[in-house]
């Protein structure tokens, strides 16, 4: 079955990025000239997704406004002959069919994904974490969808994380299948000792899930931080029949972390067709003073 639906959870509190996120959703923080979530939506669309459900909560109305038409602004741009910008602004609302639902209580990523049940129905669907921007020629979400189409199982995006960082992530038991594709049969969330580490591969940012995840989530007890963790439900998937892991290509930026936001801004600005060159010159002058 073709994967055409995607869910973007964007209802977290973003406490690691306070005070910026007191009233501004972290998913709307700007990277150069676009909010983070627009990069994520564009990746989904390039991967063949047509319908996108964004999970929001109180105070995140500006996410809906960003993907809506904006008649007054469009009129002004058109009256003043700013055709390029007019097209860019209108095109945002045409990227996909957008749907929104509120997660009424911030009970964790697993709970947020479970809010997508009626949108998803009985189809496989992609999940793109709202604070993980991945930039690459081959969209990460599409790489996972191709693996789903080939193996017919839930697929998680995986990356090797540094040894001293694994305790902040999940650790996967992996058996290579081909190239960058693995079978994942078990996992440990936030391993505390070296003995608990199954591998340095961790689940990051993207997955394609089969709809049986919803029954599993219904039966998943609150885990770390008292929240319903998506990774706990994924462990059940991994242990019962396996789950595919794709070591995706592309550079991931964590917009839930202040250093990640700075890295995204610098690296994406350097690739920008108009700003890249002048920004590079500016950086060189700064670097020479360090
Ligand atoms: P995080 O755990 O990184 O988000 O979730 P957070 O809770 O905002 O992080 P802190 O407070 O800085 O530690 C990853 C993604 O899941 C969403 C977030 O918006 C983020 O995009 N999320 C998380 C939800 O939609 N609902 C939740 O209850 C938790």
The major β-sheet equals: 9 strands, mixed
Annotation, overall tally of beta strands: 13
Compute the gyration radius: what is it? 20 Å
Mean pLDDT: 95
Strand neighbour order, sheet with most strands: 5-4-1-6-11-8-12-10-9
The low-confidence runs, each spanning 5 or more residues with pLDDT under 50, are: none
Helicity, as a percent range: 25-40%
Number of separate structural domains: 1
Hetero groups:
uridine 5'-triphosphate
Element string (H = helix, E = strand): EEEHEHHHEHHEEHEEEEHHEEHH
List keywords for this structure.
290 residues; alpha/beta; Spore Coat Polysaccharide Biosynthesis Protein SpsA, Chain A; 9-stranded mixed β-sheet; two-stranded antiparallel ribbon; binds uridine 5'-triphosphate
Report what the structure shows.
By secondary structure, the protein is of the alpha/beta class. The protein has one domain (about 5-285): Spore Coat Polysaccharide Biosynthesis Protein SpsA, Chain A, CATH 3.90.550.10. The chain is built from eleven helices and 13 strands. It has helices at about 35-45, 60-65, 70-80, 85-95, 110-115, 115-120, 140-150, 215-220, 230-240, 260-270, 275-290; strands at about 5-10, 30, 35, 50-55, 95-100, 125-130, 130-135, 155-160, 170-180, 180-190, 200-210, 245, 250-255. The strands form three sheets. It has a nine-stranded mixed β-sheet with strand order 5-4-1-6-11-8-12-10-9. The chain has a two-stranded antiparallel ribbon with strand order 2-3. α3 packs antiparallel against α4. It is globular. The N and C termini lie far apart (about 55 Å). The model has no long low-confidence stretch (mean pLDDT about 95). The structure holds uridine 5'-triphosphate (UTP). Uridine 5'-triphosphate binds near residues 14, 103 and 108. Uridine 5'-triphosphate (UTP) binds near residues 10, 12, 106, 109 and 111.
